[in-house]
Amino acid sequence: YIEADRDTRFRRLRMRDGIELDEFDRNESNELEMQVVRCKAMADFVVINDGSVEALDKKLTQVIDESPKHY
After folding, report:
1. Which residues pair with 2 in a beta bridge?
2. pLDDT tens by residue, 8-43
3. Largest separation between any pair of C-alpha atoms in the chain
């Protein structure tokens, strides 16, 4: 499961889709968000995605390298 904090998610959506804060807040509170919370609870790994693409790649490589081979 890969996570980004609220401000990062809003900033990225605003840049990509031009979304405004009120629409973002409505989307955050819908049922899909609850499903994401349940999915995160079942995840074996949680990666915080709060930086660059390169930083995410480094974090994911570390998770893969440290995970049991049956993944």
Report:
1. 47
2. 999 999 999 999 999 998 888 876 778 888 888 998
3. 44
Tell me the whole-structure pTM to 2 decimals.
0.58
Q: Which two tokens stand for residue 41?
A: 């609870």
* Tokens read off for 43: 């995840």
Which among 47, 63, 64 has a CA at the least distance from the CA of 8? 47
Token pair listed for 60: 């994911």
| Spatial contact of 48 and 3, defined as CB atoms under 8 Å apart | yes
Any idea which residue has 């980004």 for tokens? Answer: 4
Distance, in Å, from the CA atom of 63 to the CA atom of 7, rounded to the nearest integer, reads: 24
Given 3-state DSSP classes, what are the helix, strand and coil percentages for the chain, each rounded to the nearest 5?
65, 5, 30
